[in-house]
Write a structure and sequence with these properties.
Length: 610
């Protein structure tokens, strides 16, 4: 123990300063300054043991960097999720390699310090705080240079040849990185009632991790001028997939702000139905059929049961109770409070999810993914329920916390649900009440045209009887409700250009308390900007589509990652990070612009236009 004060921590990192590593069951965020500031163990949705991302170092972090001033460059090793951070100092150059081996039984974070030039003094500081930064563990030495930390149900074990010592309620170490030498640090997680996990060889784990990722990526297809961006997005999506079940989390984080300093902070460590069709197409079109089949199977298991109990999101294992509470001891990222754990939106009624499900199952059939047991029986029940509830107001695709409305996009997706049931029956010889469904489909289309279309402005609107626009309307042609050449669709795209573009990026809608029950203001939703690029391509504006797409590629961080939103005024990424929906949109828009198989055409109608 020592009374020496620790050196001051570097300034708090912005969202774009992070990179992700993961083991296909959880993920960690590593900053440009060499600090692991977020990690939930053992699952994506478990309590965090490093929560500095939403506070400061006292809430848990693992910093490993030169002791003196440095400059940083970093990259992922090509075709992998192994992060390589290169620190340049006056004394020399050192690399820190960060990875999490794909999990077998125990989860590990492996950090290897490689001396590249000269002699570089290094410092490690490990602050373990279980329970989202609240619980300091009891730490004991169990072997030479092996530390075991326990609090409640969780145990972590640190193994390294470097001599460590306690300093306050942290573990620190100083050592020198010498050219040609490698120094490993391995932090492992285990349930506290079990024996400490066996040690692993860090170099062997890195080699096996590299083989895994390159083998997985090589099994798929990436081509065209945007292959690098597609591959990085594919790896990122794979890293956010919970391997035991096939569920894909929207993001590995909670409460990164959509508005800095505001309260638009949500927990995204769950699986959303609204992402399902575009997720499936991104997987299938890029040759990853195993992941596509696992995703379809996860969906069927998660939504099994009475149709009236269908939720908009589920836990990674299909859990239904995602109760929302506030971690009031955390100050939030850049003071953005509250920090929410769980998501109350799981209790909302969103009509559009029925269309997403039926479209996903239909696209899976078209792509050759085998049906699960009695999948068609489930679809019959879902369509029957849509026939009963389609005219009820809902919270819509954006999960508003204001009054329910009759959202146009929700009604269109009810139409999609019925349309895909008809097409599945027609294309695959499945039995169903086709005449009743066709009549319902026509009634739904007529209702949307009568109530969701503003003829005077030649645009569809966000909700019946209201003038506001919504970026989800960009999808009306993609889902097949009307042809891209239809004047009403072209007019809608042009109206969204006029009213929802901010500095070239698309807002979901104009936020007002009367619309979503929250104080106004948020960033531009990145997936919506990709949708506009898709719309440009569909209506014959390919140059505009490519310009916007390449501008969106330009807002990725230095290792190719995107968050949920973009703060156009501050010029920085915002919202939970990395965001699956953004990377799914990137993959699909790249295909729409450059590939023969275009997701925007896969969902459209094949018969007459409405």
């Amino acid at each position: 123990m020592t009374n020496e004060a620790p050196p001051p921590a570097p300034p708090r990192s912005q969202i774009a300063d992070y990179a992700i590593i993961g083991d296909l069951e959880t993920a960690a965020l590593v900053s440009r300054t060499g600090s692991v500031d977020w990690l939930c163990w053992p699952r994506f949705d478990s309590d965090a043991c490093f929560a500095a991302l939403l506070g400061d170092d006292s809430h848990g972090c693992w910093r490993l960097a030169p002791a003196a001033d440095f400059t940083v460059t970093r990259r992922y090793r090509p075709g992998t999720l192994i992060l390589e951070t290169l620190f340049e100092t006056a004394e020399g150059t050192v690399a820190v390699l960060d990875l999490m081996p794909p999990r077998s039984d125990v989860s590990h974070v492996v950090r290897i310090v490689e001396g590249r030039r000269g002699l570089v003094p290094m410092r490690m500081r490990l602050v373990i705080r279980f329970g989202y930064g609240r619980a300091a563990p009891w730490v004991r030495r169990i072997e030479d240079q092996t530390l075991c930390a326990i609090a409640g149900p969780s145990m972590t074990v640190l193994r390294t040849p470097v001599e460590t010592r306690g300093e306050g309620l942290t573990t620190v170490a100083e050592f020198v990185a010498r050219e040609g030498e490698a120094t490993p640090f391995v932090l492992s997680h285990q349930a506290s009632h079990l024996s400490p996990p066996a040690p692993i060889d860090a170099e062997a784990a890195m080699a096996e991790t590299e083989r895994f990722w390159r083998s997985w990526l090589g099994a798929g297809v990436s081509a065209g001028p945007y292959a690098e961006a597609i591959e990085r997005s594919k790896i990122t999506l794979k890293a956010m997939t919970f391997a035991p079940t096939g569920g894909l989390v929207a993001a590995p984080t909670t409460s990164l702000p959509e508005q800095f300093g505001g309260e638009r902070n949500w927990d995204y460590r769950y699986c959303w139905i609204r992402d399902s069709t575009l997720t499936l197409l991104a997987m299938m079109n890029n040759g990853h059929y195993e992941e596509a089949e696992a995703w379809r199977a996860w969906l069927q298991r998660a939504v099994a049961g009475a149709p009236q109990d269908l939720q908009i999101m589920y836990g990674i294992g299909g859990e239904r109770r995602l109760m929302e509470w506030t971690a009031d001891w955390l100050p939030g990222h850049e003071g953005s409070r509250p920090v929410r754990i769980g998501n109350a939106a799981h209790e909302q009624f969103q009509l559009d999810v029925f269309g997403e499900l039926l479209d996903t199952f239909h696209q899976a059939r078209r792509g050759g993914v085998a049906d699960g047991p009695d999948l068609w029986g489930l679809e019959l029940a879902l369509v029957d329920h849509v026939a009963k509830v389609w005219n009820e107001p809902d919270e819509g695709i954006w999960e508003i916390r204001g009054p329910k409305r009759r959202f146009t996009y929700s009604r269109v997706m009810a139409w999609v649900a019925v349309d895909r049931a008809i097409r599945s029956a027609e294309d695959f010889g499945l039995e169903g009440p086709l005449e009743d469904w066709r009549a319902l489909r026509e009634a739904l289309a007529a209702d949307v045209w009568a109530n969701g279309f503003d003829a005077a402005r030649n645009t569809f609107v966000q909700a019946y009887g209201e003038p506001q626009l919504d970026a989800s309307l960009l999808l009306l042609a993609q889902v097949g409700f009307l042809a891209p050449s239809h004047p009403a669709y072209v007019g809608t795209v042009e109206a969204i250009e006029r009213e929802l573009l901010v500095n070239g990026f698309v807002q979901r809608y104009r936020t007002r308390a009367s619309v979503d029950g929250l104080p106004p203001g948020e960033g531009a939703f990145l997936a919506c900007s990709f949708w506009l690029a898709d719309a440009y391509a569909l209506i014959g504006r390919p140059d505009d589509a490519r310009r916007l797409f390449e501008r969106l590629l330009g807002v990725r961080n230095d290792v190719g990652l995107l968050s949920e939103e973009y703060d156009v005024r501050g010029g920085r990424l915002a919202g939970n990070f990395p965001q699956a929906f953004s990377h799914i949109a990137l993959i699909n828009t790249a295909a729409n612009l450059t590939h023969a198989t275009k997701p925007s055409e896969q969902r459209t109608r094949k018969d007459k236009e409405p």
